[in-house]
């Protein structure tokens, strides 16, 4: 063989068996993003999040997730959590805010509790990440935002293995938080199709919906009321020092929500950004 052919073979083997992941500097950041091809943890210099106290109308979910996270940060038993429900009601914001609150509450968690975001498309590679994190002296919250699975998506099988941990068990220093608009992570028509077409419908459906059963905590998020929506807007205005008459604020906020056809934390923030821009207030 020529030297060029041997080089191509060597490059192909390297692509099939990538080099081991380099050791990241966990002191460099409080949050990281997991990437594959090659495997690596990329530090996030500044996490995009809002303070915990600014999240309105989700008190029960907030208190439950914070208590669970503090238990985990202290080295005590804690549950994987699925945050599901109405869009725009602060599911992903709550995960990031709770991580920051735990680090601020517990001095030992400031350097040891790390947040790692993983994309749904990278779930098949999460086993390699767990093998690496298992041997670390830090504690990690794996976070997958907007998690759901389509008809022909087999990634849910990888997630089952992560939540159960396989033979070795889930690493004691790793917790998994996910957000989704679906309680069972599968579209309803997919579940109904399984019932109508499978040889053994009940067993096939059970395989799909049992994924959400592997989360110890189910935290539901529901559409907010008009009063809660207005409280969100007032909270943003107060935090930014934006002064505006109550009647005007109420009228404009309600009109904005009506044009969007929804009330949620996300809609409240979008209205506030528009209002702040019109009032010349920098955020």
Topology:
Blueprint: H1 3-16, E1 31-35, E2 40-43, H2 59-73, E3 81-85, H3 91-105, H4 109-112, E4 113-117, H5 126-133, E5 139-144, H6 155-164, E6 174-180, H7 188-197, H8 201-213, E7 217-221, H9 226-240, H10 246-260, H11 265-279
Parallel strand pairs: 1-4, 3-6, 3-7, 4-5, 5-6
Antiparallel strand pairs: 1-2
What does this structure look like?
- The chain is of the alpha/beta class and 283 residues long.
- It has two domains: 26-221, P-loop containing nucleotide triphosphate hydrolases (Rossmann fold); 226-279.
- The protein is 47% helix and 13% strand.
- The protein has eleven helices and seven strands.
- The chain has helices spanning 3-16, 59-73, 91-105, 109-112, 126-133, 155-164, 188-197, 201-213, 226-240, 246-260, 265-279, and strands at residues 31-35, 40-43, 81-85, 113-117, 139-144, 174-180, 217-221.
- The chain has a seven-stranded mixed beta sheet with strand order 2-1-4-5-6-3-7.
- Strand 4, helix 5 and strand 5 (139-144) form a beta-alpha-beta unit.
- Helix 7 (188-197) runs antiparallel to helix 8 and helix 9 packs across helix 10 (246-260).
- The radius of gyration is 22 Å and the shape is globular.
- The termini are far apart.
- The mean pLDDT is 84.
């Amino acid at each position: 063989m020529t030297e060029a052919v041997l080089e191509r073979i060597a490059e192909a083997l390297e692509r099939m068996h990538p080099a081991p992941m380099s050791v990241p500097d966990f002191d460099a950041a409080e949050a990281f993003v997991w990437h594959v091809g090659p495997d690596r943890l990329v530090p996030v210099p500044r996490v995009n999040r809002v303070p915990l106290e600014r999240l309105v109308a989700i008190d029960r979910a907030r208190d439950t997730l914070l208590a669970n996270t503090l238990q985990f940060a202290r080295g005590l038993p804690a549950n994987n959590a699925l945050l599901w429900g109405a869009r725009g009601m602060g599911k992903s914001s709550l995960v990031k805010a709770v991580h920051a609150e735990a680090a601020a509450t517990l001095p030992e968690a400031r350097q040891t509790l790390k947040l790692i975001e993983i994309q749904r498309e990278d779930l098949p590679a999460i086993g390699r990440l767990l093998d690496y994190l298992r041997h670390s002296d830090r504690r990690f919250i794996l976070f997958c935002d907007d998690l759901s699975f389509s008809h022909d998506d087999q990634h849910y099988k990888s997630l089952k293995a992560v939540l159960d941990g396989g033979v070795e068990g889930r690493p004691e220093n790793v917790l998994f938080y996910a957000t989704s608009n679906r309680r069972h992570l599968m579209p309803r028509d997919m579940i109904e199709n399984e019932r109508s077409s499978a040889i053994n419908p009940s067993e096939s459906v059970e395989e799909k919906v049992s994924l959400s059963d592997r989360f110890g905590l189910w935290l539901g998020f529901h559409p907010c009321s008009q009063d809660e929506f207005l409280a969100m807007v007032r909270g943003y205005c107060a935090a930014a020092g934006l002064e505006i008459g109550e009647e005007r604020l109420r009228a404009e906020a309600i009109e904005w929500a009506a044009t969007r056809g929804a009330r949620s934390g996300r809609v409240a923030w979008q209205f506030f950004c528009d209002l702040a821009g019109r009032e010349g207030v920098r955020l």
